[in-house]
Amino acid sequence: NAGVMQNPRHLVRRRGQEARLRCSPVKGHSHVYWYRQLPEEGLKFMVYLQKENIIDESGMPKERFSAEFPKEGPSILRIQQVVRGDSAAYFCASSPPNSPLHFGNGTRLTVT
Amino acid sequence: QKEVEQDPGPLSVPEGAIVSLNCTYSNSAFQYFMWYRQYSRKGPELLMYTYSSGNKEDGRFTAQVDKSSKYISLFIRDSQPSDSATYLCAMRKGAGNTPLVFGKGTRLSVIA
Question: How would you classify the pairing of strands B30-38 and B19-25?
Fold first, then answer.
């Protein structure tokens, strides 16, 4: 019974490149959340999606960041033209309706 | 004032001690309260999930919620070195799948 799967675990990008982070939710979970964690900081909400719909993107930067959760396949968090300040751990979580979140082990993005 | 305040520690205790971890919050709309444990370079793992005021016990862990004081606690009895981790409080407003708001986390070390 696999949990939330995120890949890659580590991602290194040069400034200006694109980063794509993938998340496969727990089988049967229809809600996906993306959070960002900086060193010594808590988890900051970015975006909440259901299949093919963005429900709440109030925590997502207005530029360069986008997220999708297609009908088939994993959820993708995409960061265009990365900058050093984007270096962080990005966590995906999933849940059934009205239930707590289950987190993956994150993708650690380093921008050089 | 931040929505959720949590002392980051670090907190160091001897093996077998009772540990008390706490969070305060400012928004009375929070109804559901959670505690997550996060080991280094891993994703948060759900420990306790409570609704509104009261106590909930699960093995060595007890969660308390005092909505009148906007204060939640996690107690760990007979602490073990394997409990050494960062503990994150989290809460959400109302039912449904509204995003969780996290505290910064308290780093706990249990010394053998």
Answer: unpaired
